[in-house]
Design a protein that fits this description.
Elements: H1 15-27, H2 31-51, E1 54-55, E2 58-59, H3 61-71, H4 78-98, H5 102-120, H6 125-141, H7 148-160
Antiparallel strand pairs: 1-2
Length: 161
């Protein structure tokens, strides 16, 4: 016989059980929330970068200078690269945030990230890898229900029936 004084009492789940319960709670986070956070956070990164390249509606001389002297992309004129970059870093993040053409926008910015990684800052792969994951969440799973893309798909899906 066991004496109550010698047997430990368990009061609730053990630490490994608590960890497992915590993981099960994370499984319940809807893709819609994860996609929205991905769209907003990575959109902000690129929007802020685009803002450093413009003064009002004009690309700054400093942005062109960076493309001439620091970024040095092969096969692309620095003036054109600065203008394309400034446009892309405003246009595609805007589309991501509102959830319009989200997969295409994420793919375009993923391509831009790959160019940055390969030709400009190859040692910044941890940062670029983090960005890539945000884009891949959107490309693979879509923008979620909190998006214009979802409203368009729902509208055309209901009309097709």
């Amino acid at each position: 016989m066991h004496n109550e004084m010698t047997m430990p009492r368990t009061q609730g789940p053990t630490l490994p059980q608590k960890f497992y319960i915590g993981l099960r709670v994370l499984d319940r986070i809807p893709h819609d929330v994860i996609a929205l956070i991905s769209r907003l956070s990575i959109g902000a990164v690129f929007w802020q970068s685009g803002e450093t390249k413009v003064d009002g509606w004009h690309v700054t001389d400093n942005a062109v200078y960076l493309f001439e002297n620091e970024y040095k992309l092969p096969l692309v004129d620095p003036w054109i690269a600065a203008h394309l970059s400034a446009f892309a870093e405003h246009f595609f993040p805007f589309l991501l945030v509102i959830g319009l053409a989200s997969r295409l926008s994420a793919l375009a910015l993923l391509g831009m990230t790959l160019v940055i990684e390969l030709f400009v800052y190859p040692d910044a792969w941890p940062t670029h890898g983090t960005w890539a994951v945000c884009f891949l969440v959107i490309i693979a799973g879509g923008p979620g229900r909190i998006s214009i893309d979802h409203l368009i798909a729902r509208h055309f899906g209901n009309n097709a029936r």
